[in-house]
Amino acid sequence: MSKIYDVIVLGAGPAGLAAGLYAGRSRLDTLIIEKGQDGGQIAITNEIENYPGQILEGESGPSLIARMTEQAKKFGAERVSDVIKSVELDGDVKKLVGNKGEYLAKAVIIATGAFPRPIGCKNEAQYVGKGISFCATCDAAFFEDFEVYVVGGGDAAVEEAMYLTKFARKVTIIHRRDELRAAKSIQEKAFKNPKLNFMWDTVVDEVDGDEILSKMIVKNTKTGELTTVEADPEDGMFGLFGFIGLLPNSKLFDGIIDMENGYIKTDDNMHTNLPGVYAAGDIRVKSLRQVVTAAADGAIAAMQAEHYIANLK
C-alpha cells in the first residue's frame, strides 16, 4: 500500500516551498511534487528588489529560490519530480496519480502557479525558441548585440527589458497603450536607460522569417495602421520577448475545484471548496501576485492543513 503523507504540496515555487517549510517545521510528513525546476516564474526573473529582507543587493530569482529549496529540505520535506495526470480530492485521503506512481495524503496544497500568456500574434508558435522567448534570464545571452523587442508594459515587462539592455544593443518596449503600467520607481529607471526605446499604442500582429525570426508586422491600436519591422540585414534576426501576464496552471482541477477565470477560489485562509484542499500563490484568485504574497499564502495553507489534520478522526 502506498504511503499516506500528512501533506502533499503540488508545486515548488515560492508558495509551494514556503508551504513545505512550514509543514516540515510543524513535524508533518510532507511531500513536495514538482514537474520542472523549482521557482516557477521567479526562477526566470533576473532581479528582485521588493522581497523584504533579501540578503544581497540585486538578488536574483534563482538565488532566492535556491535558499528556499534548502530551507524546505532542512526541515524534512521529501521531494519527487513527477507530472500529475489526475487527482481524487474527496474524502479523508486524497490521491494524486502521476507518471511515476500514486501519491496519497490527508491534505493537499495546490501551488501550481501560472505560465506566461502568449503574445497572440500570427505564426507565434512557429518562432518560439527561434527568436520568440518568455524568459529574459534564460535567453538574453543569445541576443548579445542584436536588437530586441519586449511586449508588455507592467512591472515584469519593464524590468526584464532593462535586464536585456545589458546584452542587446537596442531594446524597444511595445505597449498597447500610451503609458506604462509598471510601478513609478521602475518607470523612472526605464526612462533614464539610453538603450531603451518605446513603441506606444502598438501590438504585434504577425511574425515571420526564414527559419528564425527576422520580420514582424505591428498594428497601431488607435489607427489600425500596419507597419513592417525587419531585422538589420547584418543581423539577420531579432529577439521578441513576451511579458503580458500569466495564465493559471489549473487545467488538472477543472470541474473538481471552484474557479474564477481559471484561478482557484479560496478564502483568506487558503481553503478551497473541498475539505483538506488548499491553494496558494499565483494559482488562486487574488489581487497581487508577487513572491512575498506567494510565500505568505504557502505559510497560511500549511498551518491550516496542520489544523485540519489534527481534527481528523
TrEMBL record:
The keyword Transmembrane helix does not apply. InterPro entries: FAD/NAD-bd_sf (IPR036188), FAD/NAD-binding_dom (IPR023753), Ferredoxin-NADP_redctase_2 (IPR050097), Pyr_nucl-diS_OxRdtase_2_AS (IPR008255), Thioredox_Rdtase (IPR005982). Its EC number is 1.8.1.9. Keywords: Disulfide bond, FAD, Flavoprotein, NADP, Oxidoreductase, Redox-active center. Residues 5-298 form the FAD/NAD(P)-binding domain. Binds 1 FAD per subunit. Its cofactor is FAD. GO terms for cellular component: cytoplasm. It is an enzyme of class 1 (oxidoreductase). The keyword Electron transport does not apply. GO terms for molecular function: thioredoxin-disulfide reductase (NADPH) activity. It catalyses: [thioredoxin]-dithiol + NADP(+) = [thioredoxin]-disulfide + NADPH + H(+). NCBIfam families: TRX_reduct (TIGR01292). Homodimer. This is Thioredoxin reductase. It comes from Oscillibacter hominis. The gene is trxB.
